Amino acid sequence: MLSFLWLSVLLIQARQLVTAQQPSINIFILAGQSNMAGRGGLFNDTKSDRLTWDGTVPPQCQPNPSILRLTVSLAWVTAHEPLHVDIDYNKTNGIGPGMPFSNAILTQVPNFGVVGLVPCAVGGTNIQKWAKGGFLYQQLVRRTQAALTAGGVLRGMLWYQGEADTITKEDSDAYKGRLEKFFTDVRTDLQYPSLPIFQVALASGQGPYLETVREAQLEMNLPHVHCVDAKGLPLEPDRLHLTTPAQVKLGRMLADSFLESLPDSSIHVRSNYAETASNFIPTSFFLGLLTTFLLTV
């Protein structure tokens, strides 16, 4: 009887050890308009007269067991294209920057750990629709908090938005102030005042005030806001959305910006962390032996 109790205690401790060694998820928010949601590979199907995704997934966008996606029902699943299929559900989605961003990080830093993507982007939305109190803002905060509750570390937000704010002079002139308030509100409500934000300066716009919005993005002076310029990246025939190769390149650019923002020690910390997580295998084996023994006594 005493042997059984002693082994039961060991079993509980082993389970706790295994749980403690499971790696945290490195969480990245994906937010903005259609170019963040992904429109790479879309074409107009003449038979159905509707936009259709060609289904082409380049190697840089292939699924990876170390890349997860938070679904609309707040569950972590293996990520695959299109990432925003259940978030930007009223539109046809294709390739975006999220998967090439994640794969580029894991390629450059193999011991980085698990990447958890939180898709929040919705096509055709101007910055006012992202203001605090609105549906898109509340959804972003709610989904991010759910991801953190499930056991994750918030590493940054990827933001690609502004095409819809190039239509009127009023919106383009007010863009910088509205964007700064949005970034500040997100940081405050997520209780992360230094949240790294990687915003994309527009490659295209829906109206004549593209340069006004780009200037606001490039001159953003909030701390820990990094700008990646998409100007010159190839566009689809609609002259608004990035092509699949452009999205792959943008994903790499965002990954480079993120990695460059890290102190050297951060990468080493992730490497050590991954080495600790690798102990999960022998610990699990030990747990299995204990379980087998208990079932036979």
Automatic annotation (TrEMBL):
Q: Signal peptide span per the entry?
A: 1-20
User: GO MF terms on file?
Assistant: hydrolase activity
Q: Which Pfam families does this UniProt record tie to the protein? A: SASA
**Regions annotated as coiled coil:** none
Q: Which UniProt keywords apply?
A: Hydrolase, Signal
Asked if the keyword Hydrolase belongs to this entry, the reply reads: yes
InterPro entries on file:
Carb_Esterase_6, SASA, SGNH_hydro_sf
Keyword Signal annotated: yes
Full protein name: Sialate O-acetylesterase domain-containing protein
Annotated source species: Erythroxylum novogranatense
Occurrences of domain Sialate O-acetylesterase (ranges): 26-259
